[in-house]
Fold this sequence. Notes:
Structural class: alpha+beta
Amino acid sequence: MFGEWIAALPGWLLWGVVVGVVASGGVAAAFLAADRLFPDPPTRTGGPNRGSLRRKAEMRDYLDRIDERYVEDADLDGTTVAFHLPERGVAITFDVHAYFAIENDGTRDVHPILCEHEMPGSHLGRRLPFEVPEVRLGPPAGGPPPSPAPSTRSVCRRPPAGRRSRRPTGRR
């Protein structure tokens, strides 16, 4: 029965199907060979990306400017948060799972704050459950950005001073 169906088809159709299958196999073989000869470079996993480093640096700068004591990458009973303000009982996180773990746990006296991924550090003051002084973030008008002086009240890791971005800006 199968042979009768093939015999009923025109020859040009059969040759087209055969050539198409052979060509598809050749392309697949070329991709497999290229993947073996030129493998992808290993991806970096588990580490923070540049966006999260910038975001944490902005939050760190804001908390330093309002003179608030904090612990970075704090562990609260198995839940890791980006910043913990122990004197105020505030946990700042970018992870929604950590936020709900703290929010739904009635045994902790911690107020969680969930920050969006692209929220500027200056907007953190509106979300804090206590009064904060008005601060201006960014470099002073007409001058170079201030050098980060070590704070005596904050307990955190700081990036090395003078680190510059390696991204080309197009300016010389």
